[in-house]
Every structure is written in structure tokens, then in C-alpha cells.
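Objective 1b: paired records.
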Amino acid sequence: MSQRLWGIDWRSVLPWQLDEIRVEYARLADVLPFMAELFPRTFNTGKQWLEEEMTEAKRRFGEEMDVFVFRDGEKIVGVVTGNPSDWSTYYWRVAGILPEYRRQALLTRFTERCYAPFRAAGVRRMEVDTSPGNRAMVRHLSGQGLFVTATMSSERWGQVLRFTKFLDEDAERTFTTQFLDINTTPNAERRQR
């Protein structure tokens, strides 16, 4: 969908090396066994995405998603999926890294590498949802400069926080001015007034 909407062909952008870890573009079918093994240990919610019936619509949606696989040699050690949620917003749907690889900051380094292709394509923000109880992810996202921009509750995922990373300075300034009442004027500029 990123290619159809924004012209981002991840197959030509990737692979990326994050030290020994190679990030490649993949198909959902390539990573479903890894997800089926990792997710029950990682996500502590009732009905998982993988447990829902694989309908034709769900299969087509999976084929449209961007799927990024993290490999140590040939071993899959992580997966990230995402998709455009509108004409200027990218939504990170799922991220899972094996516990023994989490201290390598793979998700941070990967998403930071995504900023340039997204900005070049006109993407203004990236969004991700997480449980407020997932303190490690809440700390991680906050530490990466993402803002809590919404909360949501559903029968599928329970309560989640929506975090947004603004890739466009004007969009971030608008958000912080209207909703956070944060003075984003640099200190030197404030002193000159």
C-alpha cells in the first residue's frame, strides 16, 4: 500500500544492516510462523490478531501491509508490520523482537531509518498503539519523542494509547501549541524578545 499511495518501494530501499541484523522486506506469509511463536509470549491480551479467522479480507489486508523482517543470519529475530492509515499518516501495526535481541535498540534504529523515505514521500506522522500497561514500550516511545495523542478502548485490544511521531515540524508545532501548551520557541529566541 505504501508503494501505491506514496511511491515507496521498500524492496528498493532495503535491505538495511543494523550491526549484525539485516532488515528485509517480506510477505506476511513469510513471518506468520515466527509471529505465532513469539506473540503469545509477548502480548498479554485475550484474543490475538493471529487467533482471529483468516478471512479473505484479512488475507488481502495482510498482503497489502508492509512487512519488515529482522534476521540474524537466516534466523528471524523480529518483525514489524505497518501500513498507511491515510494520505499522510503511517501506522505501525505490530512490532515483535525476540527478548535476547531487545537491548540492541533495533526498533529505534529501524524506525529512525524510516524517517527519510517517509518525509521524502510526504508522510507527516507515524503512529503506533500500545497498552498503557506495557510500561517498557510506553517509556521507549516517550523517550523517542513520540506524543500521546489519543486513547482508545475496544473488545479486541482493550485500552491502548496512541503515540504519534511528527515527521513534519509544522504538524508537531501545531499539536504542541494547541494541545500541550508547550512553548517550543528556542531559549535563545525567547531571550531576544
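Objective 1b, second protein:
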Amino acid sequence: MNRYLFEMFEDEALKIKIKKRLPYLYRIAELESSRAGKIGMEVGSVREKIIIALLIYKFGESNVNANISIIEPEVDVKLFEQPISIKTITGTGFSGVKLIWTVDSQKAREFFENYSPCCDILLVQIVWNGKGGFYYIPLEAQERLFENIGRDRYIKLPKAGTNPRGVEISKEALSSLVLDKESKVVEIDWQKPEIDYHPYKRWVDYWREE
């Protein structure tokens, strides 16, 4: 178990801050990534930066490395050089979380055949106007479940003939992982805040600078 992440999920003051601030910050991410009322794919990158910023706030910038090569499909950040994957899901179910993004069916098959859990997971479950959470899923829990249920039940490949966006962790697997005895959660009441947000304001302010 990553002792630093375990410490973060035992920090009562930080947990209160997460409960309060995460819905607000994720709502800003949606507004920043929206056009004509539709949320764009870039929202994923903004959400990821929000969680990385949380790690920097807690542990200091020198201990958080977000300069990760794109050839590492799962690793988004390293905390004290320990790799972490950051994932977000919207809704009450635990389906649709990608292990790798690819539209190439051959690459998807190769990933499926060679995959094994490789890092801790920080998972945000957004349920606007409902109950969700911020989860820490240790690598050890993933490895144990992967061994118990097997590759075919742990991983969900895209259906043949479709235009997929990637390979997913199965709903069965993720639902089990968030309930694992070693996993931690900060439960969040996702009330959607009203924010008077102007996406171009900061850029206009930069233009106004002398």
C-alpha cells in the first residue's frame, strides 16, 4: 500500500476540504471545457490536473512528478516516484473506465493479452446532485482481484465491428475494487454549484497587462 496516499485518506482536515472543494473545481473544469452546452473531451485533462494539484498541495511540488511519457498508458503522475493512475467516472455505476485509449483493435487485443495491474489508482466518481466519492484503490487490491477473477472478467474489450475508444476495466472488477478492504474513500455530496464563470476572462486579463 502507498503509505502517502493512505496518509492522505486519513487526514481529516484534508478530507473535509476535498468534500467541499472537489465539486466546485470539477464544475469549473466542465465550464472551461464546454462549448454550446456540450462538454468536450479536454475535460479529462483538466480533471486530472485538479487531482495532481491536490497531491502537490498535500505533499509539495518537489515530490510530485507529472512529466510522464505518453508511452506509459496508465501512469498519470508519480508521487515520491511511485506511479499513480487518475481516473474519473460520471454516474452511479462503475462502467466505462478506460485502461487504455485506442481505436486500433489490434493494439486493444495486444493490451488485453499483456495487461496486469501496474499502479495505484485514484478514482473520482461524479454523481451530480447525488452521492459519489474519491477513491484510493491500492495496487495490491488490483493484483489480488486480477488473480482471483482472471483476465477475461477483469478487462472489457470493445465489441468487434464498433468504433471503440479503448479497453476498459470491467464493471464487475471496478465495483469490487472500490469495496475492497484495502481501498479508501472520501464520500462526496455532489451538489452542482452555481458559478458565474467567464472562460475568456483570464486570457483577456493577460492581454490587458502592460
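Residues 12-32 form the longest helix (21 residues). The mean pLDDT is 93.
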